[in-house]
Amino acid sequence: MSTGWIVLGVIVVLVFLAFSAYNRLVALGQRVGQAFADIDVQLKQRHDLVPNLVETVKGYASHERGTLDDVIKARNSAISAQGPAQMSAAENQLSGALGRLIALSEAYPDLKANANFQQLASELSDLENKIAASRRFFNNAVQEYNTGIQQMPAALFAGMFGFTKKDFFDLGASRTEVEAAPQVKF
């Protein structure tokens, strides 16, 4: 009789651990989802800002067609990207193209003095800061989630419940390209 109670007690403890681990992993997964949605909202704002910025630059630097086309292609690629890895790569291309576009203002004093351009550049700068903060928050949430599925006792149940490792929103191989100052050639 006492062996039955011990077995029942062990089963109850295991069930409690499984429920506790499951609930914690669900909460961590929801945090990752929310953080990704925050990035997505800000990226959509950035994508909406790009055409206005390109149109403003067109009036002053119409012979810079290649740079303008690169920005539009990068924006379209970023809009159609799916998942953190693809979005990260596409957004990095867009960041580089936008950097080259903003660098054009140095070569065109009239453009640099244009109030519309200044406002759009300021909005873009603000959005870039918000996106960077959101990426940090997302990557922190992913780190906590990934750690959570690898820690005991959750590690015993995570695979069984379908929890798998998530990818970071990282600059990856293009980190040197994004960190390098854009070069403008005439």
From TrEMBL:
GO cellular component terms, semicolon-separated: membrane
Cell compartment(s), UniProt: Membrane
Name under which the protein is recorded: LemA protein
Keywords for this protein: Membrane, Transmembrane, Transmembrane helix
Record-annotated membrane-spanning stretches: none
Chief location category: membrane
Domain of life: Bacteria
Family affiliation: Belongs to the LemA family.
Membrane topology: Single-pass membrane protein
Xref: InterPro entries: LemA-like_dom_sf, MamQ_LemA
